[in-house]
Amino acid sequence: MVEGRERVLADATARGIPIEFVERTAAASLEEAAEILGIDPADIVKSLVVKRHDGSFLFALVPGDRQISWAKLRAVVGVNRLRLPEASAALEATGYERGTITPLGNTTAWPVFADERILGRRVGMGAGEHGLSAFVDADALVAGLDATVADITD
Q1: Alpha helices by DSSP H, the chain
Q2: How far apart are CA 62 and CA 135, in angstroms?
Q3: Which of 66, 65, 61 is nearest to 148 (CA)?
Q4: Where are the domains of the chain?
Q5: 12-44, pLDDT tens digit by residue?
Q6: Around Cβ 98, how many Cβ atoms within 10 Å?
Q7: What predicted TM-score, i.e. pTM, was given to this entire model?
Q8: CATH code matching the domain that covers 4-150, chosen among 3.90.960.10, 3.40.50.720, 3.40.50.2300, 2.30.30.240
């Protein structure tokens, strides 16, 4: 199986998204990862796998200092029920472990919903492997993924 970094790079390249990988020591939290990388937690984008009631998935891209607003996300997606799957289900669905998840190089292309607050900045995110972060221009990421941009966080 192709390593996470290679999957992420191949997909980013195919989508025209410039990407930079930065190796880092293991972090116990998002805040610790931000400190290691020398950036604010808001500049780390969490790629959250969200399960719909019909069993299909979507990605929600959320700034590191915010949480999903389930009511806002349900309204944007147009459904009544959404939830985070178990870690094992997220791994099976994406091929990535929690903490490494990214919509780039995912085993299945799903719709992507990005919180509007990530725009206009360079952000770090999961890179498909532990001990690695991917940095991208958020606007290029959103465009390359054809993401729906909306206010989906609190």
Answers
A1: 4-14, 30-37, 70-77, 87-94, 138-145
A2: 15
A3: 61
A4: 4-150
A5: 999 999 999 999 998 888 899 999 999 999 999
A6: 16
A7: 0.95
A8: 3.90.960.10
